[in-house]
Amino acid sequence: MSDQAVQRAIIQASPDRCYAVAGDFASYPEWAHDVKQATILTTDDNGRGGEVEFRAAAMGRSTTYVLRYNYGSNPLRISWRLMRGDLVTRLDGEYEFAPVPGDPDSTEVTYYLVVDLAVPLPGFVKRRAEARIMHTALDELKAAAEDTSEAK
Asked: Does the pLDDT at position 151 exceed 50?
């Protein structure tokens, strides 16, 4: 059975900035603390990551998985589907970046995630893993997008 989660956050950066940070997979190890390595395997016609292999810390061990990305422009969206992984059989999700009305320098980020683990785990362990993924996906993205020393 799939575990699904949706969470929202406000980031004090433009939607374009948030989209750019989330789509810069090579930089993930710099701000997403559980991601140890990100290797872009293929790119799309616009030079964006098509398939990306990640090595990450998960549940006390290292895991490797490959995600295939798709992009939307109105609204700004980045979605992904699991191609292969050693600890998960499904790891599908999406970021949606929407401007905050009246504040062009703020973004409402909605994060969707569906996960199926390869091995059964107790509910509390799965919830802890989900909370960690959500933290990285939103809180660490927020810190990276709001870091003006890296803004381009």
From this structure: no
Domain coverage including residue 109: 3-146
Nearest Cα to Cα of residue 103 among 9, 11, 2 = 11
Distance separating alpha carbons of residues 49 and 29, to the nearest angstrom: 15
Buried b (16+ CB within 10 A) or exposed e, 107-145: bbbbbbbbbebeeeeeeeeeeebbeebbebbbebbbebb
pTM of the shown model: 0.86
pLDDT at 67: 97
| Domain CATH for 12 | 3.30.530.20
Q: Is residue 151 part of a domain?
A: no
What are the residues whose beta carbons fall under 8 Å from the beta carbon of 92, sequence distance 6 or more? Answer: 79, 80, 81, 82, 113, 114
Mean pLDDT, residues 67-80 taken together? 91
